[in-house]
Amino acid sequence: MAMCRVFAVVFLVYIGLLVSLCSAGDPYVFYNFEVSYITASPLGEPQQVIAVNGKFPGPIVNVTTNDNVVINVRNKLDEHLLLHWSGIQQRRSSWQDGLPGTNCPIPPKWNWTYQFQVKDQVGSFFYFPSLHMQRSSGGFGSFIINNRAVIPIPFNTPDGDIVIMIGDWYKRNHTALRRALDAGRDLGMPDGVLMNGKGPYQYNTTYVPDGIDHETITVQPGKTYRVRVHNVGVSTSLNFRIQNHNMLLAESEGSYTVQQNYTSLDIHVGQSYSFLVTMDQNASSDYYIVASARMVNETTWRRVTGVAILHYTNSKGKASGPLPTAPQDEFDKTFSMNQARSIRWNVSASGARPNPQGSFRYGSINVTDVYVLKNVPPVQINGKKRTTLSGISFINPATPIRLADQFKVKGVYKLDFPNKPLTGPPKLETSVINGTYRGFMEVILQNNETRMQSYHLSGYAVFVVGMDYGEWSENSRGTYNKWDGIARTTVQVYPGAWTAILVSLDNVGVWNLRSENLDSWYLGQETYVRVVNPEETNKTEFPIPDNALFCGALGKMQKPQDISSAARLLFKAGNFSVLITLLYFVSAAISIFS
């Protein structure tokens, strides 16, 4: 009987917590993630993939602007783990960014709770594991931030929401890919393209063998859907298209775009887009959804094609025949670049941000810092294959940069990243950009490789103001779009070309600037931008979280994990009403069973 009383008290306390934490006025959203290995056969052969809550891809995080998001992550892998929330700006809190420059990793069998606010953001993003090439084995999922009801969206409310995660895929897992890179080898051509974790529909028996499960998306005829597409792959740009359907571009990584129809769009590694697609075709058969490799020899790479099925509820047959063709410009790269230039910011749309979308006149702000970041083909440093930015191959320190600053640990990094590429031999360094708080920084990304690159800056949306082939020069500024360049988090840089971005450094913290191509990133093509308020007030940055992990030079400060830290976080995450409600239910339980 006593055990029943204890169980009843615990049950009522649990119910009380749910009631209090999920009340209508409470802006907290809670998730539990268990990250583990499972066996899957996306390309027809069993292989080890990384799942979240047993799912591959992981569950969708679906929140609303200004929600406080609490995600408890349990690491059931056999190696360290960090989850990065790509495109979530982590305003005033780089502590939650989930990258080795800001966080100590979560050890195997440990859990750690991320807590952050999606402040003044809307749009389509994704999360993924940021260590050890793990994203090449999975662990990713979509992260959607919806508008609050009081903020209108610049299009009619869609009839439904569809998420499609595309990406190149290898049958080798991330540890095998890592070994290849460590041995100085290239990864080679991917084995295929996955769409929502599944292989291609068998549109052709030569390229697609029997026994591969494909993705089918069922829609209602006449309805309009918001289709969110994320390229979560390793290193391949993909052309995305839906057979016989126009795709009205509406949003990219948190910014509403000028609405234009596309029959296909190149989506580069790390990028996300939202399209409005109306199901206005006849239902004589299903339709192909295709993601095929770009910026490569497309004949040789034909197997690197993902195919899913768009199925109308009244469809009369299966899809058949050839796939819709990609742009026929293999030897003319201007088509893709002109398409990228056509993606512009909708300056008349409302938006969840401190300055309403379009009111931020970025073209009239004086630039305070200029950085020309050049990448070249991989180089040899100390006998090892490495990638570089401006002649520096980045080494992540044992003690995260932000943690070193907090506890004044010396010698962890150098605040000396050069404004222009080094002229001497490449170097291995933990070299960081010294960002000016409330400065306005211009970054030119110069790609002197023969393959496509894309770059991501954490903590901010950047204005994409120009791109062209050849070497950037100061005269190139005359071509900049100073009015409606798209604001986004991940930008493409074409082979033998440059892309210029502008960014307002108003978010204090330590922020990762990296190649999104996983092999380039793993081999050193990254740095961090350190932005410090010289006044050092808590108004511009949140304090170190209570549950911070310690490693490197501060490893002795780490205590064994215990449940009390999670409890402290719970009460901190809620408000005083949580405690009052909890006490009420405990009191009620005691009175019932006494």
TrEMBL record:
<keyword id="KW-1003">Cell membrane</keyword>
<dbReference type="InterPro" id="IPR034273">
    <property type="entry name" value="CuRO_1_AAO-like"/>
</dbReference>
<keyword id="KW-0732">Signal</keyword>
<keyword id="KW-0472">Membrane</keyword>
<feature type="transmembrane region" description="Helical">
    <location>
        <begin position="569"/>
        <end position="593"/>
    </location>
</feature>
<dbReference type="InterPro" id="IPR001117">
    <property type="entry name" value="Cu-oxidase_2nd"/>
</dbReference>
<dbReference type="GO" id="GO:0005507">
    <property type="term" value="F:copper ion binding"/>
</dbReference>
<keyword id="KW-0812">Transmembrane</keyword>
<keyword id="KW-0479">Metal-binding</keyword>
<feature type="signal peptide">
    <location>
        <begin position="1"/>
        <end position="24"/>
    </location>
</feature>
<dbReference type="InterPro" id="IPR011706">
    <property type="entry name" value="Cu-oxidase_C"/>
</dbReference>
<dbReference type="Pfam" id="PF00394">
    <property type="entry name" value="Cu-oxidase"/>
</dbReference>
<comment type="similarity">
    <text>Belongs to the multicopper oxidase family.</text>
</comment>
<keyword id="KW-0336">GPI-anchor</keyword>
<dbReference type="GO" id="GO:0005886">
    <property type="term" value="C:plasma membrane"/>
</dbReference>
<keyword id="KW-0449">Lipoprotein</keyword>
<dbReference type="InterPro" id="IPR011707">
    <property type="entry name" value="Cu-oxidase-like_N"/>
</dbReference>
<dbReference type="Pfam" id="PF07731">
    <property type="entry name" value="Cu-oxidase_2"/>
</dbReference>
<dbReference type="InterPro" id="IPR045087">
    <property type="entry name" value="Cu-oxidase_fam"/>
</dbReference>
<feature type="domain" description="Plastocyanin-like">
    <location>
        <begin position="399"/>
        <end position="535"/>
    </location>
</feature>
<keyword id="KW-1133">Transmembrane helix</keyword>
<dbReference type="Pfam" id="PF07732">
    <property type="entry name" value="Cu-oxidase_3"/>
</dbReference>
<feature type="domain" description="Plastocyanin-like">
    <location>
        <begin position="161"/>
        <end position="314"/>
    </location>
</feature>
<dbReference type="GO" id="GO:0098552">
    <property type="term" value="C:side of membrane"/>
</dbReference>
<protein>
    <recommendedName>
        <fullName>Monocopper oxidase-like protein SKU5</fullName>
    </recommendedName>
</protein>
<keyword id="KW-0186">Copper</keyword>
<dbReference type="GO" id="GO:0016491">
    <property type="term" value="F:oxidoreductase activity"/>
</dbReference>
<keyword id="KW-0325">Glycoprotein</keyword>
<dbReference type="InterPro" id="IPR008972">
    <property type="entry name" value="Cupredoxin"/>
</dbReference>
<feature type="domain" description="Plastocyanin-like">
    <location>
        <begin position="35"/>
        <end position="148"/>
    </location>
</feature>
